[in-house]
Structure formats: structure tokens, C-alpha cells
């Protein structure tokens, strides 16, 4: 089973001062439309050649629209690069918008 984190849990942990690297694996057009503040865009298709941008010194939360592409990114980074500090945002930015921050647009 791949490790995941609910939007509510992520928000609570952020409120407690925990730091994360937020990596959004959606496409640029999606990212331009809405995003979680502080997230960094690395589209899923670019991930194999941009893995050096993934932090190894803190938890990394992978984000997409509904959690499917970010789950694929997590599996790739775990299996190909041995990263163990990864979390998938369960339900993606859609769930974040509905559960945590209604200011983030839903699409």
C-alpha cells in the first residue's frame, strides 16, 4: 500500500509547523488554474528527468487532480529511486478545495 495523507491531515500538520515539499504533478494549464500555495510544478511526464528536484531531507507530498497521477509518481519515485519520504495527497487538489480551502478553484 502506498502512503497517503488526507487534505485535512496535511493542513493540520502544516498548522503545527511541519514542513513539506509540495510537488504538483499535473499539467501546467491545470497548475495555472489552481494550486496549493507553496507547491512546485513537476508534470508527471517530466518527473523522470527532474527527480533531482525532489527533496530527500523532509516529507514530500505529491499532488494531482484526484490522487491518481500523484500515486503513479509516488510509485515511480519509490521503486526507481528508492525514496521513502513520499506521501500521496488523497483525493488530490479537488479534495483540498472541498475539505480545506474553498478559495482554491474546483474543476
TrEMBL record:
PANTHER family: FAD-DEPENDENT OXIDOREDUCTASE, SULFURTRANSFERASE YTWF-RELATED. Residues 16-105 form the Rhodanese domain. InterPro entries: GlpE_sulfurtransferase (IPR050229), Rhodanese-like_dom (IPR001763). This is Rhodanese. PROSITE patterns: RHODANESE_3. It comes from the Bacteria.
Amino acid at each position: 500500500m502506498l502512503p497517503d495523507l488526507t487534505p485535512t491531515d496535511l493542513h493540520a500538520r502544516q498548522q503545527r509547523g511541519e514542513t513539506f515539499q509540495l510537488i504538483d504533478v499535473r499539467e501546467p494549464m491545470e497548475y495555472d488554474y489552481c494550486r496549493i500555495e507553496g507547491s512546485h510544478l513537476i508534470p508527471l511526464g517530466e518527473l523522470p528527468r527532474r527527480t533531482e528536484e525532489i527533496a530527500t531531507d523532509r516529507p514530500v507530498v505529491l499532488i494531482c487532480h484526484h490522487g491518481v497521477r500523484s500515486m503513479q509518481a509516488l510509485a515511480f519515485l519509490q521503486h526507481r529511486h528508492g525514496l521513502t519520504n513520499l506521501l500521496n495527497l488523497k483525493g488530490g487538489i479537488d479534495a483540498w478545495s472541498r475539505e480545506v480551502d474553498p478559495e482554491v478553484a474546483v474543476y
